[in-house]
Design goal:
20% strand, alpha/beta, Aldehyde Dehydrogenase, Chain A, domain 1, 39% helix, Ald_DH_N, 2 domains, six-stranded mixed beta sheet, binds nicotinamide-adenine-dinucleotide, Aldehyde Dehydrogenase, Chain A, domain 2, seven-stranded mixed beta sheet, oxidoreductase
Amino acid sequence: MSITNIAKASASATGQAVFDYPVHSFINGHVQAPGGGAYLDIIDPGNGAVIGSLADSSAADVEDAVQAAKEAYSDGRWSEKDPEERERILFRLADLVDRDSEILSEVEARDTGKPLAEARLDIAEAAAVLRYFAGWCTKASGTVVPAPREYFATTTREPLGVCVAITPWNYPLPILTYKVAPALAFGNTVVAKPSELASASSVLLAHLAHEAGVPAGVFNVVTGGRTAGEALTSSRDVDKIAFTGSTATGKAVLRAAAETLTPATVELGGKSAQLIFADADLEAAVEGVAAGIWTNAGQICIAGSRVLVQESIKDAFISALTERTGNLALGHSMNPGTDIGPVISEGQLTKIKAFLQEAEEAGATVQTCSTAIPQAGYFLAPTIVTGIPTGHPLASHEVFGPVLAVDTFSDEQDAITKANSTEYGLAAGLWTKDVSRVHRLTRKLEAGTVWANTYGVFHPTLPFGGMKASGFGRELGPQAVEHYTHSKTSVIHLSAS
Ligand code: NAD
């Protein structure tokens, strides 16, 4: 019985998800127990309970997955299928994600602590990304090059080989599909390693891919933590690494990739600013700021974790945001009334609390917007911090929790200087009714994405990625072709007739 079937049987019989069973790697079309026999606890951050166990793969397990992917690439069982056939299989996979969306959503919610309603959106996004890239199977084409007349020259896009996808825990399934869907669409094989804090949905996706007709060895998932990640990034049989995670880990990944000269794209941390001008629609801006920082308890790479508000409307803005936030309910992922879930771990909660305490001691004003904090679980009330002393790290470092740093600006130049003042460059939000200002500032903001009068819009058609310490490369949209294929130039001499 596959894990998918186990999950469904279990869910219908007991209301519990896949965690009744250990979550194992899926390698070469099979469930594989860890060679070293090691397991990690799966903890529900909404109550601190151990709800399952996860195989902690060794370097030898990872090698099995890499060799399976290498063989599957070399014999052409996937890359040499007709593009229409790959397209059909990937569309079928998207349909299977839809079919199992409830179980996948529950797994994601319990693993990450996010409200079930948010997890459902994640699963729907993953299916949409799979469909978008399924369409690309039959759309990627080459060029005829205007070379000297005695030659006929073309470029074609060819797969890279074995692609590694290393992903974080905050949006496990969507972020996995950003990497796996284009990799498979263009004929590569994959070894994915999800975060040890939320792996189950990724393993389930591999089972569903198998059911959809993706041949054995083409899409492998190894579970585990840093050991498994390091084994993947140091392998000489890997042809591309796509990493999403913290900036610190991203640097380690790039160092390893440099040793083997493996191309790598990295999507890293952020400290994105939302700029609120006095002419903005205040109600809409408050909604956008609240969604940008309280969604997923602020644990989003593009969290709008800094607000820069024009001096003249500072008090009105903070009071409206405080009122809006006070209505939000903290709670367990599976509680239908929950607006904000816990942070991912006890360690993360302790770290954030210490950061806030230190900022308060340095002179900042720390205001919590909710009093009803659940007793069990790793909950932190949504927190607004004002008056942060110049140069204090709370204004520039990623917190990864429901903490909003507020500052003011006087004019456009001041706003841009402050917005660009961190090492990150992932995203920014602009709130103003002046369209010319939107264009002027969009050019100057050091960010991979700028949203104006909205925030956090993701869609498979919209390329996403960072600048500066937020990484490089773009996921989603047509640019993915460049990251999952290479360009082959072919030159044919035309003999005289
Ligand atoms: P993390 O860096 O701790 O872990 C990410 C992944 O890397 C996990 O699978 C982990 O097991 C693995 N890993 C750990 N050490 C490794 C090593 N030495 N070599 C290879 N792999 C290793 O990140 P996290 O806590 O899971 O996620 C949160 C971070 O991710 C935040 O900084 C957030 O901003 C960032 N993030 C960025 C984006 C983006 O698109 N830019 C999206 C989501 C999250």
